[in-house]
Structure to design on (236 residues):
């Protein structure tokens, strides 16, 4: 019986991604983001439960990747797609380019399953981080656009293409050979964990001042900090 518990949690992740996708197509980015977050919680616990119960299996690994591509690949792509559809774009195919992110998310997950270098860190941007970035960014943009004096109104012509540019950049980051740290602690001391503690402490003011949009800022800061620390290690 216990061998089915981790896979059940993984399926809850997948279902959360399906619900997130539904809300994305309905134009409710906030609810879509909420279910992406819920999916991320399930994604965190399925592996932990599998290790605790000693019931890890190859099928669980494959199922986890399938669920992750729905929740952290297709759902955020749908959020971006629906947001781009709200603009008057002459080239009607442009919003569909958002789904390129779902394909690159699948490629990133496939690489992760085969890459033995990612036990203590990541090579490339993790799909949950990418999904949280786009979900929170679109929610933030919608909230700002709702303000009467929002400066975004002057960027309506350029914003869809800036969003697409950002989408392509995130696609690159998903599969890039860039080492990125994971919030895994062998010890709780400061030495050896400086980057992780700096990151965690800097997240607090970002969330306090920016609210939901702070998640996007946190993910951007995570990428920048990872690149900076990687260059520092190489030069030392």
């Amino acid at each position: 019986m216990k061998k089915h518990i981790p896979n059940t949690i993984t399926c809850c992740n997948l279902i959360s991604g399906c619900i997130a996708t539904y809300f994305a197509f309905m134009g409710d980015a906030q609810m879509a983001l909420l279910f992406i977050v819920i999916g991320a919680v399930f994604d965190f616990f399925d592996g932990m439960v599998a290790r605790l119960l000693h019931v890890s299996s190859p099928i669980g690994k494959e199922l986890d990747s399938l669920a992750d591509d729905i929740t952290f690949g297709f759902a955020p792509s749908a959020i971006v797609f629906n947001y781009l559809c709200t603009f008057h774009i002459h080239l009607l195919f442009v919003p569909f380019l958002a789904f390129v992110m779902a394909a690159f998310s699948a490629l990133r997950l496939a690489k992760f399953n085969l890459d033995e270098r990612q036990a203590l860190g990541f090579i490339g941007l993790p799909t949950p981080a990418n999904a949280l970035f786009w979900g929170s960014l679109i929610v933030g943009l919608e909230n700002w656009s709702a303000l009467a004096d929002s400066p975004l109104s002057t960027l309506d012509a350029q914003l869809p293409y800036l969003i697409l540019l950002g989408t392509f950049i995130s696609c690159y980051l998903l599969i890039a050979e860039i080492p990125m740290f994971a919030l895994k602690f062998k010890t709780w001391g400061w030495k050896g964990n400086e980057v992780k503690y700096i990151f965690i402490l800097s997240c607090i003011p970002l969330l306090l001042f920016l609210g939901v949009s702070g998640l996007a800022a946190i993910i951007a800061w995570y990428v920048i900090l990872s690149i900076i620390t990687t260059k520092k290690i190489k030069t030392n």
Residues 58-85 form the longest helix (28 residues). The chain has a mean pLDDT of 86. The two ends are 51 Å apart (CA to CA).
